[in-house]
Design brief:
This protein has 106 residues and is α+β, with helices and mostly antiparallel strands. It has four helices and two strands.
């Protein structure tokens, strides 16, 4: 896979995650955690490992599109992400379906 194709796929996956979070907000569901995001992506046929999902969520936080609570689970040794929500910038992108250099909406 070329670097350009890989970048497009990453941008598209970010857009899907943002739309999933928005759909949960619109339905007034409880805030998702990283496991729920991973499971939904699997159901959609998007094959990502749990660590890849964590990295994507962290990237979206760095881009100021998502916010969440993160903690280290001492028993499993894993980072856990909970209470995922869109930021104001994330809401703006999703509602306008406006693609950027970092996120692609189909």
């Amino acid at each position: 896979m070329s670097a350009e194709h890989e970048l497009v796929q990453t941008r598209r996956k970010r857009g899907i995650v943002l739309k999933l979070v928005r759909q949960g907000h619109e339905k007034q569901l409880s805030r998702m955690d990283d496991f729920e995001v991973w499971a939904i992506l699997q159901d959609l046929g998007i094959n990502l490992g749990r660590d890849q999902v964590l990295t994507m969520l962290q990237d979206l936080q760095i881009l100021s599109l998502l916010s969440f609570k993160s903690q280290h689970n001492e028993f499993s040794g894993r980072v856990e992400i909970k209470q995922i929500e869109l930021t104001a910038a994330g809401i703006g992108l999703v509602t306008r379906r406006k693609s950027t250099d970092d996120v692609l909406f189909d």
